[in-house]
Amino acid sequence: MKARQQGFTLVELVVVIVILGILAATAIPRFITLSKDARISAAQGAAGGIRAAIALVQARYQANGNMAATSVNMADGTAVNVTANTAFPLSVSPGMDKAMNCESTTACQGLTMVMNATTVTLQPAGAAATCIVTYTAATGAIVVNTAGC
Questions:
Q1: Residue 82, in any domain of the structure
Q2: What pLDDT digit, counting tens, does each position of 85-116 carry?
Q3: Are the C-beta atoms of residues 146 and 132 closer than 8 Å to each other?
Q4: Domains in the chain, number
Q5: Residue 73 pairs with which residues in a beta bridge?
Q6: Contacts of residue 113, Cβ cutoff 8 Å, sequence gap at least 6
Q7: Is position 3 within any domain?
Q8: Considering the domain boundaries, does residue 41 fall inside one?
């Protein structure tokens, strides 16, 4: 009896490779847009985190009853410096960085953070310089710019 060889023919292998190439060509553009969507969602999530931090600090500020205070002690003992009467967290430490429980004054939950005298900016990893969330301490305004995400 002659032993029967098993395996794929060259034609079958080429057909499989062609099919995989076609699938890859259609899938890669979808993955590229998913990365952009992820960075946009990260920016919008950061804006939501800032809004939540402001609301929590303001609630604690009002519960304390001293509307002239420039600092709020949160439930975990963290002190957050705020603007008197409005209770907007300041843009310098310990302000918004402590209100959002950030790791440092340059990193916050996987985002790059820049704090200066008037604003705090958060930027998702891998995003262009125009993909940022800006918080203005004096007014409490939050601007989300998703250009370049």
A1: yes
A2: 999 999 999 999 999 999 998 999 889 999 99
A3: no
A4: 1
A5: 79
A6: 97, 102, 104, 105, 106, 107, 120, 121, 122, 123
A7: no
A8: yes
- With respect to residue 1, please indicate whether it lies within any of the assigned structural domains: no
Residue 115: name the closest of 130, 101, 100, 95 by CA. Answer: 95
Neighbours of 116 (CB within 10 A): 10
Instruction: Kindly provide the residue ranges of all beta strands, DSSP E only, lying in the chain, ordered along the sequence.
Output: 71-73, 79-81, 107-108, 111-115, 119-123, 132-136, 141-145
> Backbone phi, then psi, for 10, in 5-degree steps?
-60, -40
Look up residue 128 and give its two tokens.
């262009």
- Output Rg (C-alpha) for the chain, integer angstroms: 25
What domain range is 22 assigned to? Answer: 15-145
Joined tokens for residue 98 = 């402590």
Q: Is the dihedral of CA 4, 9, 13, 19 positive or negative?
A: negative
pLDDT tens digits, 122-140: 999 888 899 999 999 999 9
